[in-house]
Amino acid sequence: MDHFPSSDRYEKMTYNRCGRSGIKLPAISLGLWHNFGSVDIYDNSKAILFEAFDNGITHFDLANNYGPAPGSAEETFGKILHKHLANHRDELVISSKAGYYMWPGPYGEWGSKKSMMASLHQSLKRMKLDYVDIFYHHRPDPETPLEETMATLDLMVRQGKALYVGLSNYPADLTQRAESMLREMGTPCLIHQPRYNLFDRWAETNLLNVLDKRGIGCIAYSPLAQGLLSNKYITGIPEDSRMAKPHGFLQKKALTPKKHQAIVKLNNLAKSRNQTLAQMAIAWLLRDKRITSVLVGASSVKQLRDNLRALENPSFSMDELQRIDDIVGETNR
User: Fold this and answer.
1) Mean per-residue pLDDT, 309-327
2) Predicted TM-score of the model (pTM)
Protein backbone atom coordinates (compact mmCIF):
# COMPACT_ATOMS: atom_id res chain seq x y z
CA MET A 1 0.00 0.00 0.00
CA ASP A 2 1.35 3.41 -0.95
CA HIS A 3 2.11 5.86 1.81
CA PHE A 4 0.36 9.18 1.30
CA PRO A 5 2.72 11.78 2.77
CA SER A 6 1.64 15.00 4.43
CA SER A 7 0.64 17.58 1.83
CA ASP A 8 2.43 20.36 3.72
CA ARG A 9 5.68 18.43 4.24
CA TYR A 10 7.83 20.91 2.34
CA GLU A 11 6.55 23.78 4.46
CA LYS A 12 7.87 22.06 7.59
CA MET A 13 11.51 21.86 6.51
CA THR A 14 14.31 24.26 5.68
CA TYR A 15 16.37 23.39 2.58
CA ASN A 16 19.97 24.51 2.10
CA ARG A 17 21.98 24.62 -1.10
CA CYS A 18 24.75 22.04 -1.11
CA GLY A 19 27.96 23.95 -1.75
CA ARG A 20 27.88 25.59 -5.16
CA SER A 21 25.81 22.83 -6.73
CA GLY A 22 22.25 23.02 -8.01
CA ILE A 23 20.82 20.69 -5.35
CA LYS A 24 19.35 21.57 -1.98
CA LEU A 25 19.25 19.20 1.00
CA PRO A 26 17.00 19.32 4.04
CA ALA A 27 18.57 20.95 7.09
CA ILE A 28 17.99 17.65 8.88
CA SER A 29 18.60 14.37 7.06
CA LEU A 30 17.91 10.84 8.29
CA GLY A 31 20.78 8.41 8.77
CA LEU A 32 20.10 4.67 8.74
CA TRP A 33 23.30 3.55 10.47
CA HIS A 34 21.27 2.10 13.36
CA ASN A 35 17.65 0.94 13.82
CA PHE A 36 17.06 -0.29 10.25
CA GLY A 37 18.91 -3.60 10.27
CA SER A 38 17.60 -7.15 10.14
CA VAL A 39 17.72 -7.30 13.95
CA ASP A 40 15.39 -4.30 14.26
CA ILE A 41 11.59 -4.16 14.21
CA TYR A 42 10.49 -3.60 10.62
CA ASP A 43 7.29 -1.71 11.45
CA ASN A 44 9.24 0.72 13.64
CA SER A 45 11.75 1.34 10.84
CA LYS A 46 8.88 1.95 8.44
CA ALA A 47 7.15 4.36 10.83
CA ILE A 48 10.36 6.39 11.24
CA LEU A 49 10.82 6.68 7.48
CA PHE A 50 7.21 7.77 6.99
CA GLU A 51 7.51 10.35 9.77
CA ALA A 52 10.71 11.71 8.25
CA PHE A 53 9.17 12.17 4.80
CA ASP A 54 5.99 13.61 6.25
CA ASN A 55 8.14 16.32 7.83
CA GLY A 56 10.06 17.22 4.70
CA ILE A 57 13.12 15.03 5.17
CA THR A 58 14.00 14.04 1.62
CA HIS A 59 17.56 12.79 2.18
CA PHE A 60 18.14 9.26 3.45
CA ASP A 61 21.74 8.27 4.15
CA LEU A 62 22.96 4.67 4.00
CA ALA A 63 26.16 2.68 3.49
CA ASN A 64 26.92 -0.82 2.31
CA ASN A 65 27.75 -2.08 5.81
CA TYR A 66 24.84 -0.54 7.76
CA GLY A 67 22.77 -3.04 9.71
CA PRO A 68 23.31 -5.24 11.53
CA ALA A 69 23.64 -7.58 9.64
CA PRO A 70 25.81 -5.62 7.18
CA GLY A 71 23.75 -4.69 4.15
CA SER A 72 20.41 -5.22 5.86
CA ALA A 73 19.68 -1.49 6.33
CA GLU A 74 19.77 -1.08 2.56
CA GLU A 75 17.50 -4.11 2.18
CA THR A 76 15.02 -2.71 4.71
CA PHE A 77 15.06 0.70 3.08
CA GLY A 78 14.62 -0.79 -0.38
CA LYS A 79 11.67 -2.87 0.76
CA ILE A 80 9.91 0.12 2.34
CA LEU A 81 10.69 2.34 -0.63
CA HIS A 82 9.25 -0.03 -3.22
CA LYS A 83 6.24 -1.09 -1.19
CA HIS A 84 5.17 2.33 0.04
CA LEU A 85 7.15 5.23 -1.49
CA ALA A 86 7.91 4.15 -5.05
CA ASN A 87 5.78 6.95 -6.49
CA HIS A 88 7.95 9.48 -4.65
CA ARG A 89 11.40 8.29 -5.79
CA ASP A 90 12.06 11.56 -7.62
CA GLU A 91 11.46 13.51 -4.40
CA LEU A 92 14.14 11.56 -2.53
CA VAL A 93 17.90 11.90 -2.27
CA ILE A 94 19.30 8.47 -1.47
CA SER A 95 22.97 8.09 -0.61
CA SER A 96 25.25 5.14 0.03
CA LYS A 97 28.95 4.57 0.67
CA ALA A 98 31.76 2.06 0.38
CA GLY A 99 35.13 1.83 2.08
CA TYR A 100 34.70 0.06 5.42
CA TYR A 101 34.85 -3.73 5.79
CA MET A 102 31.96 -5.49 4.07
CA TRP A 103 33.05 -8.96 2.91
CA PRO A 104 36.16 -11.16 3.34
CA GLY A 105 39.17 -11.03 1.09
CA PRO A 106 41.19 -8.23 -0.46
CA TYR A 107 38.24 -6.58 -2.29
CA GLY A 108 35.78 -6.25 0.59
CA GLU A 109 36.86 -2.82 1.83
CA TRP A 110 38.95 0.32 1.16
CA GLY A 111 39.03 2.15 -2.17
CA SER A 112 40.10 0.10 -5.18
CA LYS A 113 38.01 0.25 -8.35
CA LYS A 114 37.24 -3.45 -7.94
CA SER A 115 35.99 -3.01 -4.38
CA MET A 116 33.99 0.17 -4.92
CA MET A 117 32.25 -0.90 -8.13
CA ALA A 118 31.31 -4.24 -6.61
CA SER A 119 29.98 -2.50 -3.53
CA LEU A 120 27.90 -0.04 -5.54
CA HIS A 121 26.38 -2.86 -7.60
CA GLN A 122 25.52 -4.75 -4.40
CA SER A 123 23.94 -1.66 -2.84
CA LEU A 124 21.81 -0.98 -5.92
CA LYS A 125 20.65 -4.60 -5.91
CA ARG A 126 19.77 -4.53 -2.20
CA MET A 127 17.77 -1.31 -2.59
CA LYS A 128 16.35 -2.33 -5.99
CA LEU A 129 17.52 0.97 -7.51
CA ASP A 130 18.92 1.93 -10.89
CA TYR A 131 21.02 4.68 -9.33
CA VAL A 132 21.79 6.44 -6.06
CA ASP A 133 21.73 10.20 -5.81
CA ILE A 134 25.01 10.43 -3.89
CA PHE A 135 27.79 7.86 -3.56
CA TYR A 136 30.58 8.44 -1.05
CA HIS A 137 34.00 7.00 -0.52
CA HIS A 138 33.56 6.23 3.16
CA ARG A 139 37.17 6.64 4.34
CA PRO A 140 40.61 7.32 2.85
CA ASP A 141 42.56 4.30 1.66
CA PRO A 142 46.26 4.54 2.63
CA GLU A 143 47.33 2.02 -0.05
CA THR A 144 45.19 2.58 -3.15
CA PRO A 145 46.29 5.58 -5.24
CA LEU A 146 43.90 8.46 -4.72
CA GLU A 147 43.68 8.84 -8.51
CA GLU A 148 42.17 5.33 -8.78
CA THR A 149 39.54 5.97 -6.12
CA MET A 150 38.51 9.32 -7.58
CA ALA A 151 38.44 7.91 -11.12
CA THR A 152 36.08 5.22 -9.84
CA LEU A 153 33.71 7.82 -8.41
CA ASP A 154 33.85 9.63 -11.74
CA LEU A 155 33.07 6.38 -13.57
CA MET A 156 30.00 5.78 -11.40
CA VAL A 157 28.58 9.12 -12.48
CA ARG A 158 29.43 8.57 -16.15
CA GLN A 159 27.71 5.19 -16.04
CA GLY A 160 24.57 6.77 -14.55
CA LYS A 161 24.77 4.73 -11.35
CA ALA A 162 25.28 7.83 -9.17
CA LEU A 163 24.21 11.41 -9.79
CA TYR A 164 26.73 13.00 -7.41
CA VAL A 165 29.76 11.85 -5.44
CA GLY A 166 31.15 12.73 -2.04
CA LEU A 167 33.80 12.00 0.55
CA SER A 168 33.54 10.98 4.18
CA ASN A 169 36.13 11.12 6.95
CA TYR A 170 38.77 12.68 4.66
CA PRO A 171 41.16 15.18 6.30
CA ALA A 172 41.43 18.67 4.84
CA ASP A 173 44.61 18.16 2.81
CA LEU A 174 43.38 14.94 1.20
CA THR A 175 40.00 16.56 0.53
CA GLN A 176 41.74 19.30 -1.45
CA ARG A 177 43.66 16.77 -3.54
CA ALA A 178 40.59 14.62 -4.15
CA GLU A 179 38.44 17.62 -5.08
CA SER A 180 41.02 18.83 -7.61
CA MET A 181 41.16 15.42 -9.26
CA LEU A 182 37.40 15.11 -9.49
CA ARG A 183 37.03 18.64 -10.87
CA GLU A 184 39.59 17.91 -13.60
CA MET A 185 37.63 14.78 -14.53
CA GLY A 186 34.43 16.81 -14.83
CA THR A 187 32.69 15.28 -11.80
CA PRO A 188 32.67 17.84 -8.96
CA CYS A 189 32.78 16.71 -5.36
CA LEU A 190 29.30 17.54 -4.10
CA ILE A 191 29.60 16.96 -0.37
CA HIS A 192 31.77 15.89 2.55
CA GLN A 193 30.46 13.94 5.53
CA PRO A 194 32.62 14.41 8.65
CA ARG A 195 31.96 13.46 12.23
CA TYR A 196 31.22 16.81 13.88
CA ASN A 197 29.54 17.80 17.13
CA LEU A 198 30.01 20.00 20.19
CA PHE A 199 32.63 17.64 21.62
CA ASP A 200 34.34 16.57 18.40
CA ARG A 201 35.48 19.63 16.46
CA TRP A 202 38.33 18.39 14.30
CA ALA A 203 36.50 19.68 11.23
CA GLU A 204 36.92 23.26 12.48
CA THR A 205 40.72 23.11 12.25
CA ASN A 206 40.82 23.46 8.47
CA LEU A 207 38.27 21.19 6.80
CA LEU A 208 35.27 23.54 6.93
CA ASN A 209 37.31 26.34 5.37
CA VAL A 210 38.46 24.02 2.58
CA LEU A 211 34.88 22.97 1.87
CA ASP A 212 33.70 26.56 1.83
CA LYS A 213 36.45 27.72 -0.54
CA ARG A 214 36.00 24.75 -2.87
CA GLY A 215 32.20 24.99 -2.97
CA ILE A 216 31.63 21.61 -1.33
CA GLY A 217 28.64 21.02 0.91
CA CYS A 218 28.98 19.55 4.40
CA ILE A 219 26.69 17.12 6.21
CA ALA A 220 27.65 16.47 9.82
CA TYR A 221 27.23 12.97 11.23
CA SER A 222 27.13 11.95 14.90
CA PRO A 223 25.71 15.37 15.90
CA LEU A 224 24.78 14.03 19.34
CA ALA A 225 28.10 12.25 19.90
CA GLN A 226 26.25 8.91 19.77
CA GLY A 227 23.85 10.04 22.47
CA LEU A 228 26.21 11.84 24.84
CA LEU A 229 24.64 15.14 23.78
CA SER A 230 21.17 14.11 24.89
CA ASN A 231 19.49 13.79 28.25
CA LYS A 232 20.20 10.05 28.28
CA TYR A 233 23.41 10.23 30.32
CA ILE A 234 22.70 13.18 32.59
CA THR A 235 21.98 10.98 35.62
CA GLY A 236 24.19 8.02 34.72
CA ILE A 237 24.35 5.17 32.24
CA PRO A 238 20.94 3.60 31.47
CA GLU A 239 20.88 -0.18 31.11
CA ASP A 240 19.36 0.02 27.62
CA SER A 241 21.82 2.62 26.30
CA ARG A 242 24.56 2.13 23.68
CA MET A 243 27.17 2.73 26.36
CA ALA A 244 25.86 -0.17 28.43
CA LYS A 245 26.46 -2.61 25.57
CA PRO A 246 29.88 -4.30 25.90
CA HIS A 247 30.84 -4.25 22.22
CA GLY A 248 29.25 -1.02 21.04
CA PHE A 249 30.93 1.99 19.44
CA LEU A 250 30.30 4.12 22.54
CA GLN A 251 32.38 2.92 25.50
CA LYS A 252 31.91 3.82 29.17
CA LYS A 253 35.33 5.47 29.22
CA ALA A 254 33.90 8.18 26.94
CA LEU A 255 31.83 9.52 29.83
CA THR A 256 34.61 11.03 31.93
CA PRO A 257 33.73 13.07 35.04
CA LYS A 258 34.61 16.28 33.16
CA LYS A 259 32.52 15.22 30.17
CA HIS A 260 29.57 14.40 32.43
CA GLN A 261 29.86 17.78 34.15
CA ALA A 262 29.88 19.49 30.75
CA ILE A 263 26.78 17.58 29.67
CA VAL A 264 24.92 18.77 32.76
CA LYS A 265 25.94 22.40 32.15
CA LEU A 266 25.05 22.23 28.46
CA ASN A 267 21.68 20.75 29.37
CA ASN A 268 20.99 23.66 31.71
CA LEU A 269 21.86 26.10 28.94
CA ALA A 270 19.55 24.25 26.56
CA LYS A 271 16.73 24.53 29.09
CA SER A 272 17.21 28.29 29.18
CA ARG A 273 16.66 28.26 25.41
CA ASN A 274 13.51 26.12 25.80
CA GLN A 275 15.27 23.26 24.07
CA THR A 276 16.47 19.81 24.95
CA LEU A 277 20.22 19.23 24.88
CA ALA A 278 19.84 17.26 21.65
CA GLN A 279 17.88 20.06 19.99
CA MET A 280 20.48 22.63 21.00
CA ALA A 281 23.32 20.42 19.73
CA ILE A 282 21.67 20.11 16.31
CA ALA A 283 20.83 23.82 16.15
CA TRP A 284 24.43 24.67 17.11
CA LEU A 285 25.70 22.83 14.03
CA LEU A 286 23.18 24.46 11.70
CA ARG A 287 24.09 27.95 12.88
CA ASP A 288 27.20 27.66 10.67
CA LYS A 289 26.23 28.41 7.07
CA ARG A 290 28.96 26.04 5.87
CA ILE A 291 26.85 23.15 7.20
CA THR A 292 24.34 22.03 4.59
CA SER A 293 22.59 19.39 6.69
CA VAL A 294 22.79 17.53 9.98
CA LEU A 295 22.48 13.77 9.83
CA VAL A 296 20.36 12.43 12.69
CA GLY A 297 19.50 8.89 13.64
CA ALA A 298 16.29 7.88 15.36
CA SER A 299 15.17 4.81 17.26
CA SER A 300 11.54 5.93 17.39
CA VAL A 301 9.08 8.34 15.83
CA LYS A 302 9.08 10.33 19.07
CA GLN A 303 12.84 10.74 19.02
CA LEU A 304 12.75 11.94 15.43
CA ARG A 305 10.02 14.46 16.22
CA ASP A 306 12.05 15.76 19.16
CA ASN A 307 15.12 16.22 16.96
CA LEU A 308 13.12 18.03 14.29
CA ARG A 309 12.11 20.64 16.85
CA ALA A 310 15.71 21.88 16.76
CA LEU A 311 14.60 23.93 13.75
CA GLU A 312 12.22 25.95 15.93
CA ASN A 313 15.06 27.88 17.61
CA PRO A 314 18.12 27.91 15.34
CA SER A 315 19.68 31.23 16.46
CA PHE A 316 22.28 31.78 19.18
CA SER A 317 23.43 34.92 20.92
CA MET A 318 27.15 35.62 21.13
CA ASP A 319 26.93 35.04 24.87
CA GLU A 320 25.38 31.60 24.39
CA LEU A 321 28.05 30.60 21.89
CA GLN A 322 30.79 31.73 24.25
CA ARG A 323 29.23 29.82 27.15
CA ILE A 324 29.10 26.68 25.01
CA ASP A 325 32.77 27.06 24.08
CA ASP A 326 33.74 27.64 27.68
CA ILE A 327 31.82 24.58 28.90
CA VAL A 328 33.23 22.30 26.22
CA GLY A 329 36.71 23.72 26.73
CA GLU A 330 36.66 22.63 30.36
CA THR A 331 36.62 18.97 29.24
CA ASN A 332 40.12 19.38 27.76
CA ARG A 333 41.72 21.00 30.79
Assistant:
1) 97
2) 0.94
